[in-house]
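User: Predict the structure for this protein chain, please.
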Amino acid sequence: MNSRAAPHEPPSRPDHVRRVIATAKKRRGNWPPAPHEKPLGDRAADAVAATMGSWRFIALQSGVLAAWVAANVVSGGNAWDPYPFILLNLVLSFQAAYAAPIIMMSQNRQADLDRGRAVADYQVNIRAEAEIALLHEKMDLLREQQLREMTELLRRMVDRIEQLEARR
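Assistant: Here is the predicted structure, written as structure tokens:
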């Protein structure tokens, strides 16, 4: 038995699905890029955002801040950063000054990806709507054809009945 369909036969369902998927991949191109294809800066921004946006980072930073404050309070006059903890303030300001733009870069990249996905979803929805409209047209044509055939059959039956009655 030949596994390939003859040229005049419609393609089998799996072949059709594979072909549609391949066409969609070609149309989409290389989007979104694979993680290893992203520039180093983008990967770094994503890693920083993922790290700083985690409970683990918050817990670790809280522990470091508590240790810093406790060590300086316990040290008294020998503290490297006595109250009001100006050095700690400076360190946290530097952290915020660098972290905020890096996190915003990651968010902008994510927004771009989301925008691209939204466009792709919209295009899929438009195609699906067109296919559904086409199916409705085909169904309407089939119904019209069936109605014409049934009308023709009824007309022939009525003619036949009239012929039979005329013979009597």
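Helices lie at 13-28, 40-52, 55-75, 86-167.
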